[in-house]
Amino acid sequence: MYHYSLKGMNYNLVGSGEKNVLKKVLAGTEDTEVIIIDAGANVGQFANMALSLISEKGRVYSFEPAADTFQKLEANIKDSRVIKVNKGLGDEEKQIVLYSSQPGSTIASVFQRNISGELQTDHETIQITTLDLFADKLNLEYIHFLKVDVEGADLDVLKGAKRLLKNRKIKFIQFEFGGTQIAPRVFLRDFYELLEKDYSLYRVLRDGLQNIEQYSEHYEIFSYANYLAILKDR
C-alpha cells in the first residue's frame, strides 16, 4: 500500500518529468549562448535531450568521473556543443573513491551502498573539482541550468557552487532527492536552507511542478524524486 501511495504522489517514477522541465527552462533561449552544466552525465542521456533544444551557440558541459562510463559518453556524443569533462563535481577539489556494482553502472556513488542486498565493491579513484573553480577557469559568468544527478552527493555539488549561488549566477537548478541521500545523511531541509533565500523550490511531477512554499518534515520522503529551484526576481 505504501509503494502505491508513493506512485500516486509522483515519487519513484520512471519518466519523472525531466524532459518537460528542460523544455520549460530552455523556452526562449533558442538563439542564445545558453550554458548548461550536466553533473553526473553517465553516457549522455541528458545531454542528448538538451542538444535537441539548444541553439548552435549553446553549450552543455557534461561531467562524468567514471573511466568506463566516460569512454561510452565520448563514443555516444560527438556534437561539439557538448564539452565532456572526466571529473566529478563536489564541495572541494580532491581525489576520492567511486563505488559501483559493475563498470558503467548508472548508480555509481562516492558512498559505498548496499543496494537490494548487494554491496557495491567495484571501485576506482576519481578526480573532483568544484563548479566555482571550473567556472572561474573557463570564465563562465552565468549558468542558465545546472542539472545534478550524482547519487547522493548532490548537496556537495551545490556547496561547491557557493560563490555562483551567492552572486545569483545560476538561474535554474535541478537536483535529485530520495534514497541516495540516506548514506550521506542529507535531508531535503538541507537543500531548502541552502537555497530558500534566492530560489523558489518545486518538486518535479510527471506532468508539472509542485510548489514547496514552506519546508515541512512531511517532505522528507526517501524515494526518488527530482526538484527544481528557480531563481527569484529581486
TrEMBL record:
InterPro entries: FkbM_mtfrase, SAM-dependent_MTase, SAM-dependent_MTases_sf
Residues in coiled coil: none
One Pfam family recorded for the sequence: Methyltransf_21
Boundaries of every Methyltransferase FkbM domain copy: 38-181
Highest rank taxon of the organism: Bacteria
Matching NCBIfam families: fkbM_fam (TIGR01444)
PANTHER family in alphabetical order: METHYLTRANSFERASE, FKBM FAMILY PROTEIN (PTHR34203), SLL1173 PROTEIN (PTHR34203:SF15)
Name listed for the protein in its UniProt record: Methyltransferase FkbM domain-containing protein
Phylogenetic classification of the source organism: Bacteria, Pseudomonadati, Bacteroidota, Cytophagia, Cytophagales
